[in-house]
Amino acid sequence: MNKAKLVEHMAKITKMPKSTCKDCLEAFIAAIGSALKQNKQVVLTGFGTFAVMKRRSRIGVNPATKKKMTIPAKKVPKFKAGKALKELVA
Q1: Strand boundaries in 1-90, DSSP class E
Q2: Could you give phi then psi for residue 61, rounded to 5 degrees?
Q3: The pTM is what?
Q4: What CA–CA distance (Å, rounded) separates 42 from 21?
Q5: What gap in Å lies between CA 81 and CA 30, rounded to an integer?
Q6: How far apart are CA 10 and CA 3, in angstroms?
Q7: 12-61 pLDDT, tens per residue?
Q8: pLDDT at residue 70 in the model
Q9: CA triple 60-49-89, angle to 5 deg
Q10: How far is Cα of residue 72 from the mean position of the Cα atoms in its chain?
Q11: Residues with Cβ within 8 Å of residue 87, at least 6 apart in sequence
């Protein structure tokens, strides 16, 4: 499901206009992004937890040249599903 289909589905469930649902979804995404940028965790009980994970630098291989290279350390977003979401999918 892509963003447009999600907005359409939200509009059908809530019986609200698609434009309102789109604005709500975009605000939700922006709020999570803002919190993660500040290294804060976002916990949605029953759904899951959004957090920032630190990856260490590591050695990789360039597939085109087969030369070894160092991949630098970086921060990446991480999502861990909550118990209710896991049970819903299982």
Answers
A1: 42-44, 48-55, 58-61, 68-71, 74-81
A2: -125, 130
A3: 0.79
A4: 21
A5: 20
A6: 10
A7: 999 999 999 999 999 999 999 999 999 999 999 999 999 999 999 999 99
A8: 95
A9: 95
A10: 22
A11: none
